[in-house]
Sequence to fold (222 residues):
Amino acid sequence: MSEIREILGVFFIGLGVFFYVVGVVGLVRFPDIYMRIHSAGKVGLLGLVGLLIGTAFIFPETTLQAIALIIFFVIGTPVASHALASAAYRSGVPMADSQRDDFAEVRKDDVVPDYPEASDATTSAGGVD
Amino acid sequence: MIESDLVQTVLDISLLVMVGLLIVTSWRVVVGPSPADRLQAIDMITTILIGVIVLLSMVEVKAFYISIALALAALSFVATVSIARYIQEGRMF
Fold:
């Protein structure tokens, strides 16, 4: 019984580390920040979930905390990725060549300059989108 | 808790790989052309660090390390969202 538990835990830890490696390869190799957000966001989440499931198998006292961390990450990572993509897009980071920018006309209206000294963003009421 | 050689070996190799990934990701922090690139690489570094802490909790057989990972995850989430907001609008609040 204990052997089965250990083998399952080792399998999930290996899966998690594999996903982490794939995510970092994407983070280094992709040409564009939007593709890199895609890679690192999803794959980092999967890697951490794999590691935590493996931890819960090998070291059963941590199961409750592992479940809490998984729930927090499943909620938090997409929000952070979305905020990052929105920040990159609105601060004018260009896309790679083969992309199509459907929001270019919308962005022309509400584009905000990169840095605070160049903008009057502190006085405008653009807080709610 | 860690009595078998298989688990011990896998944990050691996993820790080595994760630390290597930390170094590779910090290359993107140095190179990344825009501030959003750097912020995103730092977010990935925090995710890898949480993985390292989770692995260490098994190596040292201490359950409260997962709580440290939870606190680090919460702080990293707030930091990422607020700095992204700063990059986007030029102000944080």
Summary: Chain A has four helices and no strands. Residues 2-29 of chain A form the longest helix (28 residues).
